[in-house]
Amino acid sequence: MEYLIEGKTGNWELVIGLEVHAQISANSKLFSGASTDWGADPNSQVELVDSGMPGALPVINKHCIDQAILTGISLNAQINKKSIFDRKNYFYPDLPQGYQISQFEFPIVGKGHLNIEIDGVEKSIGITRLHLEQDAGKSLHDQDIDNSFIDLNRSGCALMEIVSEPDMSSPSEAAEYVKKLRNILRFIGTCDGNMEKGNLRADVNVSVRRKGDELGTRCEIKNVNSIKFIQQAIEFEARRQVDLIEKGEKIIQETRLFDSNNLETRSMRGKEESHDYRYFPDPDLPPLVLNEEDIEKLRLKLPELPDQKKSRFIEEFGITAYDAEILVTEKYVSDFFEQIVEGRDSKIVISWITVELFSYLKRKNVSLEESKIGPEKISSLLDLIISNKISNRQAKEIFDEYLKSDVNADTFIEKKGLIQISNESEIEELVEKVLKENPKMLEQYKSGKDKLFGFFIGQVMKLSNGKANPKMVNETLKRKLSL
Amino acid sequence: MTDFSKLNITSALLGLKNKDFKSVELTEYFINQINKKENLNCFITKTFDKAIDMAKKSDEKIIKNRELGSLEGIPITMKDLFCTKDIRTTAGSKILDSFIPFYESTVSQNLWNSGAVLLGKTNMDEFAMGSANTTSFFGNVINPLKSKNNDKDLVPGGSSGGSASSVAAGLCLAATGSDTGGSIRQPASFCGLVGLKPTYGRCSRFGMVAFASSLDQAGPITLTVEDSARMLQSMVSYDSKDSTSSKKEIENLLDYKKSDLKGKRVGVPKEYLLDGLNPEIKKAWDLGISWFKSVGSEIIEISLPNTESALPTYYIIAPAEASANLARYDGIRYGFRAEEKSDLTRLYEETRAQGFGKEVKRRLMIGTYVLSAGYYDAYYLKALKVRKLISDDFSKAFERCDIILTPTTPNVAFPIGEKQTDPIEMYLNDVLTVPASLAGLPAISISACLNSDSLPIGLQIIGKPFEESSILSAASLIEDLRGF
């Protein structure tokens, strides 16, 4: 559906482009051997380059290059055989070299695209480029009254900046794009996608225009670190721009910040204050030259992407496109599903995951990953259902309690005394007892009152404390009554 | 008794090996000489205790005749641009006045591994920006040589002025320098020594305070050509810590002695015959040509048509790179910080205003300017293109010749205080040395003769990439035939 902003003078459409900064999953930094572990003591993971010591020199981390190439391949993008590292010059205390090593004119990855799905309709979002750069350190202003402190642990960590074309036209498209991109990165393992830790964050470019008009002046909202905030920031910013234009004012191209407490964007710096970064090729680093063979090797190593997995799920397990989509939107979920479905009936597995488990998670308001529910927790329960040890209904009844428990299904059911009676002679005994105890009803049934069948079932189940296998009770009763 | 004042590396190594004297004795002699010639201001930091310590260790090895390095027990000085672990390293600047590295540069480490003994860190133009060693925060260096016609103190050249002066004054057996546009060759020429700038990538830049990364190269300043080969052999290495370091196999540099100059094609570039070239220097150049002729070398007039553009190209590229390389000196993490707490911008401004000298500031301004939006294409980008042309000129010339012979400098050592008012005049000192720097080629300067004031005139020999032994061999011819 077309997303338009209603103004006083008519409708406006949005143009959105995103620059996503994704920290590469790597043990060491882009140009040094320092560790990238999160949460270490301040300045404990810093080598000479990361702290800008005199005479320190950057040496490229090949693993980070491979990660960027893998990401480029999974974004259907051009991998550039030659790319150049540039220095981006500016002064800031958490930028120890006085410049950031980045890629400007010749990035490692060129044009590509990524498909998103909105209300069942596919839309292709263009990728302009992907380049590698160093992260900066962190300034700490809240540790002391008179002084600021610097933590350089993050300084020099490898980032991929993934720039999209301005192809999105609604907050939900932008959200879908980030979700999809994040999911791809997690699938191929090039970024953990953790937005809370800041390992994935976005600069959002927003402009508005009348339908069919030229592009409007854009504003860039820096460092938005959740998908919800991205949507909220776009909504606020678009409305702000529409209001301004309709008041007869001009949009000033500027950098803005999103304030998630007040749900508004605020000016950070205008274009006239914008830096002249004086990019130039870093003379410490020769051009990065890749050969076709290495790229092809990586292409073969590329794990299954979400869209490929979705198709396979549909084909292999005969599940619906809808269910398959749900399973592949999170790598964690699809891995979880694959571990459970192995050797089990996919229909039962899919329904227990997408219906029962997901509604449980929704009630608890946690993601599957956060819930800490392991695949064996679900598979052990499903095994009991499949082997008729408990009924589907029993399983549903005890589901919440079981998930909260810290035991596997066998132990839980045993403790609860819930094991289903599936022994034929035991069932027969129960049926016979019920028929014997209800001679009147039996007579009425035999005189033609068929619907009393359900009464007998109920009595058998009651007698067995609900443990009798319903299917077997049904069959046994039918047999006995037809005698 | 050995006369220590007459020694060079080669003869000292022999004396040490023959146990004529100990390294400690040699080291004590130089410490004594350094104290005597304090007035030359060659040193920023002296490391006498460490020197004695290192010399003792060398002596032990020599006695046991085990694990001997190729420079075992040889006292040298290091330009104060090489980071030395636990020893102050200033690059001649106030902004690094208090800086003590906790790491060692690869070049210095290589020398210690070879058994060299460190006497001290030598004075230099601030961040290697200068051609007379007059821009140092620690004061100018004096050339031990004097004109026979007056008593004025002369500059030793720059930026490795302290290194050159310390060798020429007999305060050590050899020194390291660094050469960005001539900073080894020009002071070697002014002080009557041998100065060699190797091919770019031959010496690791790790731990060298950077001036212009695409040009900086470490090299030796020595008394003789053989010493130059010995020093350089120890300094070079492939280093994974420097991405521009070359993996090309390193030749045995002493093999230069085996090469025969008969039939060698010596290129003489007509563009180096500058208008302002001192006639005595022209004469020295002709003399050099005649020596090569005399041994059967073929003299070939060559053309390096873009020579004229080399100096302006250099003075765009080097400052541009420097403007980024020196951005890290901001007073935040190490080195000098101004007493300024009002705000961050003021802290930066005051730290850098007080911490850097005039010449450094001038080049940072030039570098920032040529990289700025709107000027980048006209200056920096154009300079990169011209640099390529200059490099191509050499490649073409080397199809016709094996080495190139030129003067090192357009003038001899001049009195301190001269050429100070006009920076352009100072920059002109580099006009004959920057082309080889821009092309990344190895080049050596060797003293060929004395002028009428009895000041040395240096000739420069430029070689093909990684053919250091070929320029050493040519330099040794001059050394043999010059008659002193």
Quickly list its features.
heterodimer; A: 483 residues; alpha+beta; Arc Repressor Mutant, subunit A; 3 domains; 9-stranded mixed sheet; 3-stranded antiparallel sheet; 16 helices; 16 strands; elongated; B: 484 residues; alpha/beta; Amidase signature (AS) enzymes; 11-stranded mixed sheet; 15 helices; 11 strands
Short description:
The complex is a heterodimer of chains A (483) and B (484). Chain A has 483 residues and is an alpha+beta fold.
Write a structural description.
The complex is a heterodimer of chains A (483) and B (484). Chain A has 483 residues and is α+β, with helices and mostly antiparallel strands. In chain A, β12, α3 and β13 form a beta-alpha-beta unit. The termini of chain A are far apart. The mean pLDDT of chain A is 91. By secondary structure, chain B is of the alpha/beta class. Chain B folds into 2 domains: 388 residues, Amidase signature (AS) domain (Amidase signature (AS) enzymes), CATH 3.90.1300; 68 residues, no CATH class. Chain B contains 15 helices and 11 strands. Classes of the chains: A alpha+beta (483), B alpha/beta (484). Chains A and B meet through loops of A and α9 of B.
